[in-house]
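Re: that chain you flagged

S.,

Sorry for the slow reply, it's been a week of failed gels. I finally had a moment to sit down with the sequence you sent. For the record, here it is as I used it:
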Amino acid sequence: MAANDKLNRFETFNRLSPEGKKILAQGLTVNNFSQGSAVLHKGQPVSGAYLVIDGRLRVFTVAPNGTEATLYFIAPGETCVLALNCLFSDLLYPAWVQAETTTTVAVIPGAVYRRLFESEATVQNLTVQALSTLVYRLMAELELVHSSNNKERLVQFILMHASANGRLNMTQQQIAQHLGTTREVIARSMNELSEQGLVRTQRGSIAILDLFGLRRVIAPDINSEKPALRKRSVRRTRAD
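Prediction finished late last night. Pasting the structure tokens below so you have them in one place:
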């Protein structure tokens, strides 16, 4: 399948003008990465816009002691906004990128992407959406970092990354790597959640058993406040 055809499955590129599709074909490449392989290194010049076709990319930082912490993931149809910022601002890439699974990535040369951005509304929308998504994800990660303990950080991570059917397909080692801690720390917190009947752990995956109970771990007062508010409201009505 031609590189252009791979991108046509996404609305952004399928709706390009005929002239835009001709521009896109100039230098577009598609690369396949095996699970765990490096895609970008910190300090590396960025050659183009990186758009995930299949699989998932992980963008992360590394502390001086070697501990890794995930910034965000890039799913199919999404592009890396940090790479876009490097393209438009002539900067070196500020983090590391790794293939979370077997991943196919289209690379649109920087000059080509800038031309498309100038003339194609769908590419402008993709860029703005990438920026807004990054802001949301980074805010979520900041909230995760500032949670008061490891158990709350783990619950935040599960709720943030679980699929719609309540399953998170990751090992405890992978989760520990994302949270910048050890597998032993994650295992202890996971055992607590399992004993409380909130999750069920299996090899390489976690299933949410009690969604509302899991939410109460990080927001214990939300559900308890509502009945009290309703009672006070009823008493006022009777007094009136």
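What I noticed first: Residues 149-239 form a domain with the Arc Repressor Mutant, subunit A fold (CATH 1.10.10.10).

Talk soon,
D.
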